[in-house]
Amino acid sequence: MAKEGEPWEWRMSFPDGMSMLFVSECIPHTPGFVVGLLGLMQSGWRYGTSEPRKIIHCFKVGMALCLVSLFYYVDPLYEGVGGNAMWAVLTVVVAFEYTVGATICKCVNRTTATFIAGALGVGVHWVATLFGKEWEPIILQGSVFFFASSTTFLRFLPSVKTHFDHGALIFIFTFILVSVSGYRMPDLFDFAQHRLSNVAIGTSICVVTSIFCCPVWAGNELHSLILNNMEKLADSLDAYVAVYLRDDADDMKKEASKEKLVGYRSVLDSMSTEESLVNYARWEPAHGGFSFKHPWKDYLELGALLRSYANCIDTLSGIVSDTKAPAFLKRHFSTVCLKLSLNSSAVLRELVVVVRTSAESPKIGLRQKEMCVAVQELHNTLKVLSNQNTVATETKPEEFSEGKGESVLPFVAIVQLVTLSSLLIEIVARTEKLVNAVNILAHKVTNSE
Amino acid sequence: MAKEGEPWEWRMSFPDGMSMLFVSECIPHTPGFVVGLLGLMQSGWRYGTSEPRKIIHCFKVGMALCLVSLFYYVDPLYEGVGGNAMWAVLTVVVAFEYTVGATICKCVNRTTATFIAGALGVGVHWVATLFGKEWEPIILQGSVFFFASSTTFLRFLPSVKTHFDHGALIFIFTFILVSVSGYRMPDLFDFAQHRLSNVAIGTSICVVTSIFCCPVWAGNELHSLILNNMEKLADSLDAYVAVYLRDDADDMKKEASKEKLVGYRSVLDSMSTEESLVNYARWEPAHGGFSFKHPWKDYLELGALLRSYANCIDTLSGIVSDTKAPAFLKRHFSTVCLKLSLNSSAVLRELVVVVRTSAESPKIGLRQKEMCVAVQELHNTLKVLSNQNTVATETKPEEFSEGKGESVLPFVAIVQLVTLSSLLIEIVARTEKLVNAVNILAHKVTNSE
């Protein structure tokens, strides 16, 4: 966003390749809030063109809210819900989420909590009335304090927080609403029933719109996220090793690989997204290639392994970032290191196929063997280096001088290459763990169908 | 949690050292839901004893809700809010968060959104009435669709999502409530005003209870989180290097260091917590040692650097996990590697002091110099190893045999030790970045006071 006083530009790009450019020079002395608003519109435009499904979701929300507000306009509907249509509206506003799973999770939570809290509220109110008008507020206040405090405490527990957070909130609210309203309300049971039926109407509209109108499944999203992350890691690994070892790459190629280099970073940041998608995916009915019993929980394990793989690439990025290996050392290493990294990323890409088709791949075993051969070759090369290093120390003291400070580069480069090899071998070890996890997943998927 | 049919145990530990043990043998054939309930109680008990401040928060929520439900019991109050006290109750239920910052953020969002949406709703309703009774529902439905869809879209934009997500939700709800209720309501302006005053009452109760009754500041939490993470990383680094290089550690010590070894993992998972705490801390007034202008955003940078440090330790853990360095190699390395890791963790612990006191420490420079000296010593030792390796190859072919496959261990150990050194040097580089970030933070804090 441009600062106040500075000229700003706003380019709108259309799908057909045309674009329009707005420059603030046209409007001298643009006020700050206009610049802010245009900045917001610009980022909105960019976001909307890159994520069209989000726009469809917005239309779905608008549609569902128009539908639910019919309960205000149509007389029989309005009277049917006892003039409390706002609870249905509030339900749609709060419970309509982007994915089907999240919507179902919130709706089930909301309806169940409303039912339990409504029944409990009516019960507590009935008990309170038995003690007479004087004691009634005291007993009601005591029960509000007790249930509100204990439910708030439950919300802190991880198992409750993950699955029933929204339900706990609605439980507190409905309980207070029903039990305390009874103090002023002649027919409390009717009131509780209206609240429940309103919430049920709202949740039905949410669930139906969410499932039958361009559904976005949390399971699908999770599946694509994991696949994308695998591909990003394979790309990052290839890019780092290539940038470090190859010098034939021209500037254009480097520019193209920049995006690939940093791809692993988004993998590091995807934990919370994965966790919430796993929770929501478990609420979804069978869809696409996923049965109701699809082993979604195993994706958490997969995600954790991918992050540990990404940690290695992050360390690698630090170690190889500044310096380039000198040419005479690279002749030993570049072929075998590139082979190892290419084999390792090939295994990862094969795993993408396995996860995508949910069928064990015959190629995986072959690729794994190739990877192991490449590890052995790297080991051998390291040993040869150790030998040649001995020779080099004797014949080229100016290049390998261990005792002298003036030519540190080759020594640093050796340490770097050994470290690179070691990290590549560690990456292979983590790839093996991934292969196991993916095989277990594929096996479970085959059994669950 | 015990499975059904299996015996279960439940131990309650009291602060005075006493404990009670419940065993299911006492109740034969315990039903599943009882086991589940007892499991929940057990985890609740453990959580409550370890986090007493959360229990205080629960009492605060109970108290605030009792306070707000007085608007039902006391006649003048009930009439004052037009019988709509439930909006005040709902506000307290939804907007009362654990930290002061989160509560203020939600309350400001809620009040502002209610005001804007209420005004807009009244305006749209007035425009709709101008077109006559037939067109009114159509115009109202159109405006509901437009504002609901566009606000839902705004909620996806990262900048809006971070700061105004709750406000956007309340905007949609209040707008629909006010504009559509107008269809049935004789005095819409009064209705909108009552909703606003109810929300204002709820938010005031939230903010006052949150600030003046055992406040939990998001800023403090963030500050402690960062400090704890720094200490965990220092402990993990020391523990890994010690476990790998020392063999005098007995089993008891190993048991004690197990917790330290895995401490870095929680640092890797703390990103989303840090981000939300930073957002909330920025809403908080001056408290403790933190002014209103405290540079909270800089903690994000600090958190990112700590995670990149933790990535290195994760890689280290993979590389040194299985094997131990053979004794004859360790005599070269253990002193200098331990020195480097201890110096590096000492710098980290010094940084903890700097962040805690928010004053630049004179010791940091000294510790950094010591760390650099240790890096140089490690470099020298690597060079010496390279020399001695040459000698060893000539004199001890059975130990270093490069060409023969039967004694791989020393060769693997050399590669491992070189990698360990390289990772330690990389950790030093990341420590330097941390020192810079902490210095910048300390400088900003001094200026902001």
Automatic annotation (TrEMBL), chains A, B:
Locations listed in the record: Membrane
Single GO BP term: monoatomic ion transmembrane transport
UniProt KW keywords: Ion channel, Ion transport, Membrane, Transmembrane, Transmembrane helix, Transport
First-listed, main subcellular location of the protein, grouped into a coarse class: membrane
Keyword Ribosomal protein listed: no
Any one of the GO CC terms: membrane
Topological type in the membrane: Multi-pass membrane protein
TM region positions: 20-43, 55-74, 86-105, 112-132, 138-157, 169-186, 198-218
Keyword Ion transport listed: yes
Family: Belongs to the aromatic acid exporter (TC 2.A.85) family.
Protein name: Aluminum-activated malate transporter
Native organism: Salvia splendens
